[in-house]
């Protein structure tokens, strides 16, 4: 069911809302709208909303238009909120009592006029979605909600986390999910599965599992992926949550919860309070412990969760008005137009194929990775879906850190290279962090570039090995070479230019015999860069030489045409990606590779 449903999510990339009812339908309009004299006392958020009025005049402009025509007079002193119900229901005689009631409790936030739902409203919408007309099931809505939470988290907290320190490597972001016993906990379990597939290091604390097939299956799914289930007592014994996770997902209680949390949930919430200095918290729909409508407004200072991120589902609940964190997202791209129209829900459009949309928060948005993450899950779980992107639109934001003059002043650039290279190797940024792009030129100045493996570096410079008779070997006789390294996960590159020379024969021989025996024989097999009739010709020669050197007690001699090169650097540049392409670049240069020629350090413009 989940796979089929994800396919449907991807194919249904947009929902079109269309209707502008004729104003002639609203026979009650002139009797219910207040004049401008009452606008201030009512407040913009309490005024009725209709898509046609908002799109064409703006609601207040339309009220002013009515006032100028004398329809509304100043004797409307007994205007009551019940008129809003009449206005919302005037368009259709088929609107139910539930929908009319909701219109009095849904409010609008700011210029986007987003609906906020009370607890009763949220229940009514869920009942409508799962009713006989629309036919959604609990597991369908839970799957979509959990996917939305995972995508929203990925948009602000990418899977790779940069370690502390200027040379530390990246590692998988650790996500700890607290799952409660209800539907909110189910959303958290679904999110755990998706976050695992997105590349996060996920673990789940599920203190009071719900013994029902739906929840049992969700636990089986994450367990089969190797996602560990940890007990609250183990987490307590290990120490503060900051040392155990980089992000915490609060999926304990939803909008149906009321009363005081019981053990162990009360202790979990205590560990997430500001005084405990927890990692960034992502709350699912309702910050646990908050009143569904009043939020934390009646809580004593320091006694309520203060999440860094809130992911509202279906529509924000009234408590979201009190959210003061950095990122507010709306998830759950499953509300059909019939429900939006029936309950007069004002929801923002979702960008592209994303399962979430940012709707507020005090902080700046992180990389917009939610849509990409959702597509990755769908592609992995379903039949291949062709996705073509414009090359010109492929870009990322470089936000892994910056470089300062103090990091380089008075230093040997080879020491800095050593630090950066060790950070890339220990951070496992790729399988071969020593892969360099080596550039050479022929006698006519025509350049060529290829990837080779850096095999050593010391105070002299940088060493690699190759066939002297290859194209690069011939071009290296010119005496100059350059190479670059790029480590995407660190958003760093190093550029090196210098004079090139062969390493001593003894050094080449020692390295040659340190290679696997098959590679040693391979150096004899290949006449590098020369045309080859076909693969079979190469394989035949390999078999012949394998037989010739089959006695492993005898060393394979080093071919005279194979050996190492040393690049003695005259220029080494360290590059760190920065936002808006205003990258940091520091270059060390000298005229000649000599201890008597000191390095000059300078910052370059990006």
Task: Please tell me about this protein's structure.
With 606 residues, the protein is an alpha+beta fold. Strands 12, 13, 14, 15, 16, 17, 18, 19 and 20 form a 9-stranded antiparallel sheet that branches. A hairpin with a 7-residue loop joins β18 and β19. The N terminus is likely disordered.
What structural category do the secondary elements indicate? alpha+beta
Termini separation? 50 Å
Measured as a percent range, the helix fraction is 25-40%
Specify the overall morphology: elongated
| Rg value | 32 Å
Q: Stretches where pLDDT falls below 50 for ≥5 residues?
A: 1-112, 163-169, 383-387
Largest sheet data: 9 strands, antiparallel
Beta strand %: 15-25%
Mean pLDDT: 79
Number of DSSP E strands: 20
Number of helices: 20
Protein name: NAD(P)H-hydrate epimerase
Keywords: Flavoprotein, FMN, Isomerase, Metal-binding, NAD, Nucleotide-binding, Oxidoreductase, Potassium, Signal
Organism: Volvox africanus
Family: Belongs to the NnrE/AIBP family.
Properties at a glance:
about 600 residues, alpha+beta, nine-stranded antiparallel sheet, seven-stranded mixed sheet, 20 strands, about 30% helix, elongated, disordered N terminus, isomerase, NAD(P)H-hydrate epimerase, FMN, metal-binding
